[in-house]
Fold this protein.
Amino acid sequence: MLDNLILNKKSIESIYKTIREFHEKYLKQFDVKLPKLYDLQGNFTKDALVLVYLAYDYPNTRKVSKEELTKFVRSYYPNTNDVQQARHLGAQAGWWIVAGGRDNIVLRIERGSYQLYTLEQPYPGFKKGHRITETDTWGKIKEKYNYRCATCGSQENKPHFHWPATKTTLQKAHMDPNKPLVAGNLIPQCQKCNRGDRNRWVYDNKGRVIKLADANFVRNFDKVVREKIYRILYAEFEGEKLNLKKN
Ligand SMILES: [Zn+2]
């Protein structure tokens, strides 16, 4: 791996200018977010520093380790811990930054390394994005999911993935059943995934269970797990008897 790049203010501004041009031409239309170069105090933002470092010599980018990125950001922010920006700029902000690891199929780079793949396309899947805004209609939401169930992927009006004799219908389903069923808390689910017992769960926008929505379901857990939960809660509440509000 090469030594750390030394980038002065002028080169940072010039690389940022290139990024901004590509963003304007190719990425803005997909809502990829361009980080500001300067914050209100006139300092470079960390996001911009990371993006600039990765875009050095574009399109001849190279892989950069997290340590190297951290070192670079520290030259402006000496107290920075591990730099997480590269991962966030990728999957969340939409820049096609490959993060090393076995799931990555685009470039062969090892875990803990990053490489900017292109400035001409957003991160794969970012176009669909599943980023639902509060003004999205049900039709728009289904379109963002390619007319598929967020959880199992079965396609509307096609045979169900697991039950081929059943025609898939898509229903409005809560992400968090304790919140109202409106855009922002709504995913399309097929009639099989959107069943009564789903009210136990909180889903993310990829239709994956991320939390328990109904505390009573803890009774179904194995004893080992219940004991662990008990220990966690006992420690959190320091064994005090809770004045429980009914809710
Ligand atoms: Zn489903």
Observations:
- The chain has a mean pLDDT of 88.
- Residues 176 and 202 are 5 Å apart (CA to CA).
- Helices lie at 9-27, 46-55, 66-74, 85-92, 138-144, 223-236.
- The chain has six helices and seven strands.
